[in-house]
Structure formats: structure tokens, C-alpha cells
Amino acid sequence: MKKPSILLIYTGGTIGMIKDSDTGALRSFDFNNLLVRIPELNLLDCIIDTISFDEPIDSSNIDPKYWIQIAEIIEDNYSKFDGFVILHGSDTMSYSASALSFMLEDLAKPVIFTGSQLPIGDLRTDAKENLITSIQIASLQERNTPIIKEVSLYFEYKLYRGNRSTKINAEHFEAFASLNYPELAESGVHLKINKGALFKPNLKKKLKVHKSLNTNVAIVKLFPGISSQVLKAIFSAPNLQGVILETYGAGNTTTSSWFIEILKEAIDKGVYIINITQCSGGSVSMGQYETSIELKKIGLITGRDMTSEAAITKLMYLLNKNLSPKSFKLGYETAIRGEIS
């Protein structure tokens, strides 16, 4: 049996930083010397190759052009490697993992995002464990076929479905959570794979890479006291085509007539409005309470238990398909990459 081959893609972020011994300043790590810096990787039963962005970027600067760049690297190397590990800053990692899950249709190999809270050269760093275990999980095979066949995110001993993950803490090593879907794997003394939770793609289909996203979108988080002027300004933005509306609880909003009227006017103009809960966990259930009955009547689309990151990236993905309103609603409310329960 030949050893699995893994491509490590460095985009930027804390994990790829080391401190200059003279100045103490952080600088990007040369991943061509990866095995020299982290000799433990030699113990893994796989072949590791690396590729880096020409100019590593802070994840706060991530936008769709970088998602396309990552997708193209995977597309160009898909036949050469058995799995991919993407090193990425943690702040927007869930957005990137969600976006790539939609962009990589019929993916049949692991694409694992990981990063760290501390640089790879720090004494107490979490970078080495996250990197080593991500590569190990990406190389797992059964009958010469990868066990993981989806975009996922590994951080602090747990592997999550990428489009179910969200960053919950800026200081703890346990920075991510998947509140509406179980972990795909957990690393301890033994590496435990939750096979029942894994995505099962159609292996008869070939990978299809979508390289364009529609960014004429917005996220609006409701709060008590939000004004009609603010909402009107948002919904009257030029070229606006879709809005993620983060509502209270199970999808509830104020029943004030001015609020409902603003939403209805936007929908009548062709703007899609998606209702997701601003709660960390749980699901939208429009019509369960009186405060969401009107939303259902005027045509809001339910995002059910999607994360904000999955909701906005799925909106970008579907808007670019030029679907009819009926097909768009059906497509949005249907799980296409395991993003909805």
C-alpha cells in the first residue's frame, strides 16, 4: 500500500508565525523547512508536500478572491493528493470553511482547516498539535479511500464539519464549537471517528469547483430599539440581493407594522431575506410563535439551524446561480453540504 499524500496549504495566520530571536517580532515561517522545524511529522505514515500563498494574509483580510485561490489550488492538485490541510487564521476560519464547502461540489477527499491561538514557535503553542493531528486525520484511509470526504475544521482535539463550526472564544485554545451538529472526530489517547456523522458524497460524480460568489449581501442583527431609518438604509443599498436577518430565539421579531413593511418592500423588489437565529445554538421555526407568523406570510426563507457563517456563504453561492425565486427558496432550505439538520 502506498502512503497517503497530503498537501499543506499555508494562507497565513498565527499558526505560521515564529518569533525572531533577536527582536521578538513575529515573522512568517518558511514551510519548506516544515520537517526540520517539526520533526514529529516524520512519524506520520504519509507524504507531506507544502504550498504557500505568495503573500500570507491575516485572516481578517480574507475575502472571496482568496477562497477562489484556495479552491483553485485544490482543483489543480486534486488528482495528485489524497487530502488537503489548510492553515488559516482563526478569526474568519469558519467563514472560509463554510464557503469552501459550497464551492467544492462532490468533494470526495478531506479538506481540513486548522490554525492556532499561539505561534508555532511559542513554548506553550497549540499549533503543533493542531497541525500534526489535522494531517493525521487527512491521511486516514479505509480500503485505499479517504475516511473524511468533506470540508472540516480541526481545533483543540476536535474535528468539526466546516459549515457547522463557529468561533466562540478569542483567548482559549478551545476556540471553536459546533453547537447544532456532533463532532466528526475527537483526539485523545485514541483518535475516535464519529462515522455516523460524516458526510457521504456521491462518489460516482467528479469534483466540480465553483469559482464565483455574489457579494451583494448583508447581515442584519436585530436588537431592541433598532430604527426604521437604519433598516431602510440597509435595504435600500444599491444592488442588494440578499440579507441574512439574525432574529431572536426561534426566529422571532417585532410585530411593528413599519418593520414588516420594510421587509415586505424589499422582498417585493426581489431581495431574498433569510431568517436565522442569533442564538449560538438552536433553530428557526417560523410560525411557532405569533411574532414570526407575519415573516412566514411575507416570504422570508428559513435558515433553520445554520450558523451565520454558513448562512452568508450559502447565500453568496446560490445567488450566483440565477435561480428562480421558487428554486432559490427550495435550494436554500435544503441541505446541500450537510449545513442544515
Brief rundown of the structure:
The chain is globular and about 65 Å long. The model has no long low-confidence stretch (mean pLDDT 92). Helices cover 26% and strands 21% of the residues.
Structure description:
The chain has 341 residues and is of the alpha/beta class. It folds into 2 domains: 5-209, 3-Layer(aba) Sandwich (Rossmann fold); 217-332, Rossmann fold (3-Layer(aba) Sandwich), CATH 3.40.50. Helices cover 26% and strands 21% of the residues. It has 9 helices and 20 strands. The chain has helices at residues 34-37, 64-77, 93-103, 127-138, 228-235, 257-268, 290-298, 308-319, 325-332; strands spanning 5-10, 17-19, 26-28, 47-52, 83-87, 104-105, 111-114, 141-142, 145-146, 151-155, 158-161, 166-167, 176-177, 185-187, 191-193, 208-209, 217-221, 242-247, 272-277, 301-302. The strands form 6 sheets. It has an 8-stranded mixed beta sheet, sandwiched between helices. A hairpin with a 2-residue loop joins strand 10 and strand 11 (158-161). Helix 3 packs parallel to helix 8.
Secondary-structure blueprint of this entry?
Layout: E1 5-10, E2 17-19, E3 26-28, H1 34-37, E4 47-52, H2 64-77, E5 83-87, H3 93-103, E6 104-105, E7 111-114, H4 127-138, E8 141-142, E9 145-146, E10 151-155, E11 158-161, E12 166-167, E13 176-177, E14 185-187, E15 191-193, E16 208-209, E17 217-221, H5 228-235, E18 242-247, H6 257-268, E19 272-277, H7 290-298, E20 301-302, H8 308-319, H9 325-332
Parallel strand pairs: 1-4, 1-5, 5-7, 7-10, 17-18, 18-19, 19-20
Antiparallel strand pairs: 2-3, 6-16, 8-9, 10-11, 11-14, 12-13, 14-15
